[in-house]
Amino acid sequence: MERQGTPSEHGYYFPAEFAPQEQVWLAWPERPDNWRDNAKPAQHAFTQVATAISQHTRVCVAVSPSQYLTATLMLPETIDVVEMPLNDAWMRDIGPTVVVNDKGERRGISWQFNAWGGEVDGLYAPWNDDDQVAATICEHLGLDYYRAPFVLEGGAIHTDGEGTLYTTEECLLSAGRNPHLSKTEIEACLADYLSISKVIWLPDGLFNDETNGHVDNLLHVIAPGEVVLSWCDDPEDPQYAISRRALDVL
């Protein structure tokens, strides 16, 4: 059920990336303009990844109606296949952000999704099916959820679960996301929906990243106050300066 208000008003916060999980969701690849050979190699790779994860954690795979039979034949019976409309296969970016409270109760957030930039520099169109995936998954799981009036992808943010969030200026301040919002207003939105008290803004993401510099290509939080950072020792490589600017901020 869709909830009014914001998660922070109701005592929910964004848990750490490394917090225990009960379930992992993937989306099934099929776009011929994005995946070579009609996505057959990608489907085999996704099957291998899903199978490996399923040895330890329950796995659900979202599949478009046209690919449902193919996916059910390729994936092990231990993996749940859930039919829903999709535009592409990037579940970290289109799926719900799950927030929790001190009782361990969970709710979801459905951010607005516009294919990493919409009409400005988005990577494909249409994206309307992907924009509904988060809400569809929440309804499938019986999770109450919030619709956030804010363009954001899951790969654009990392948190330590204690109120600190990491992101990049390149991504969250890009013209194709939320150009009507200032940096301060974006921080306020993150506080409202994720109960964030501190935002660490890294200047740029990984060099030549087509998502406008998602932080998950550059940095991962492995414990409160502890991160791993993509690195480069070649001064001639553009990533050399990017990684050092990030380190200076950290």
UniProtKB/TrEMBL annotation:
Q: Which InterPro entries match?
A: Agmatine_deiminase, Peptidyl-Arg-deiminase_porph
Query: Which GO-annotated molecular functions does the record name?
Result: agmatine deiminase activity; protein-arginine deiminase activity
Which UniProt key words apply to this protein?
Hydrolase
Q: What is its EC number?
A: 3.5.3.12
Is Hydrolase one of the keywords?
yes
Q: Which Gene3D superfamilies match?
A: L-arginine/glycine Amidinotransferase, Chain A
The organism that produces this protein has a lineage beginning with: Bacteria, Pseudomonadati, Pseudomonadota, Gammaproteobacteria, Vibrionales
Originating organism: Photobacterium halotolerans
- The protein, known as: Agmatine deiminase
Q: Name one GO biological process term.
A: putrescine biosynthetic process
